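Morning - magnesium ion inputs below, output right after.
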Amino acid sequence: MDQAISLKEMMNKKFIKSDMDVNQNRVKVISVTSGKGGVGKTNVVVNLALSLTKLGKRVLVLDADMGLGNLDVMLGLTPVYNLHHVINGEIGISDVITKGPGGMMILPASSGVQELSELTPTQKLNLLTEFDKIDDSIDIMLIDTAAGISSNVMYFNTAAQDIIVVASPEPTSLTDAYAVMKVLHTQYGESHFKLLVNMVNDSSEGKDVYRKLSTAADRFLNISIDYLGYVLKDKHVVLSVMEQRPVLDLYPWSNASKCFIELAKKISEWPVNTHLKGNIQFMWKRLMGQTDWSKI
Ligand SMILES: Nc1ncnc2c1ncn2[C@@H]1O[C@H](COP(=O)(O)OP(=O)(O)OP(=O)(O)O)[C@@H](O)[C@H]1O
Ligand SMILES: [Mg+2]
């Protein structure tokens, strides 16, 4: 009860930032998604995060691949706490965030969007209040989603400002990438995507995949796809996964690492899409759905 009163006071004092205030914190929220599994999302997230930290960005990685937790496996981390503990008020957000290579911050989500939308207003406010505390210490948030078109994955994508779709040159990966964009467009109103082609033999193979996908999208869907770039197929990636280290850390001179450095430069130069969607708090508000704050 006491907690409810103090939370209500916080709301009255506008402790929780409004969407307009939030827009002034220029955090980029970017989701990394795919239709087909195993195309390299987690690897992309980990190495982009590390490249971005090398460019001086403060990066928070949200492991939204609920249940599988392959991000911590890829980095050899064993987080004890996750977002669930924050929601229950057991610990603060900074105790859940694990430090990874290059100082990247890693937040294990653990719970699905369904659970987030079913929280009580007090629990939701708890979460927003905790995010308010870290808002100013982040420049870029990367969300590692699961593969496919489950509503959980879709919601994480719609809450992000930019959606990076990862595809490989395999035909099934192409059709699945198309399917993801189609669902995000027809059911969730998303119409801008960035394509990253992973595991290519050379740069022309990446452009070829982009051409095929954007031609189909132009003909059948009213969406725009930007070509973000490619990552070369490189055995050093496989070796680094075995070592549970980012390839950029272990083999910084490898072909794949060079691609990640290029991609990170591009991303760091993107303008923040603030007029479309806000940042972290906005994202969580969106994930948690409509809330009647008077019920606190
Ligand atoms: N550029 C690359 N070159 C060579 N192998 C790669 C490359 N990128 C990824 N891989 C291989 O593909 C595997 C799967 O990558 P990753 O786990 O990142 O995919 P994912 O899309 O996150 O999978 P999931 O859908 O299961 O979450 C890696 O373990 C690695 O062996
Ligand atoms: Mg993954």
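Note: Residues 34 and 166 are 5 Å apart (CA to CA).

O.
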